[in-house]
Specification:
The chain is an alpha+beta fold. The chain has 1 helix and 5 strands, in the order ββαβββ. This is Sulfur carrier protein ThiS.
């Protein structure tokens, strides 16, 4: 399956991943906590309450915004 993740093509070997499952995978890969991220699919915000049920589909445009603090 192919999606566009933050403007870049991203190939997923897995099918039928929920947003929650995908974020857990990315959190491990990127070594960053994405539990408080803002998720947009095709320019629409996905409520956190829908992360466990909303499945990713081929050609989705997914934006993950994660805010960090620093000095």
């Amino acid at each position: 399956m192919e999606i566009i993740l933050n403007g870049e093509k991203y190939i997923l070997a897995e099918e039928n991943l929920t947003i929650d499952e995908f974020l857990a995978k990315l959190s491990r890969e990127w070594k960053i906590d994405l539990s408080e991220a803002v998720i947009l699919i095709n320019d629409e915000i996905v409520k956190k309450s829908e992360w466990k049920t909303q499945k990713l589909a081929n050609n989705y445009h997914l934006e993950i915004l994660s805010f960090v603090s620093g000095g």
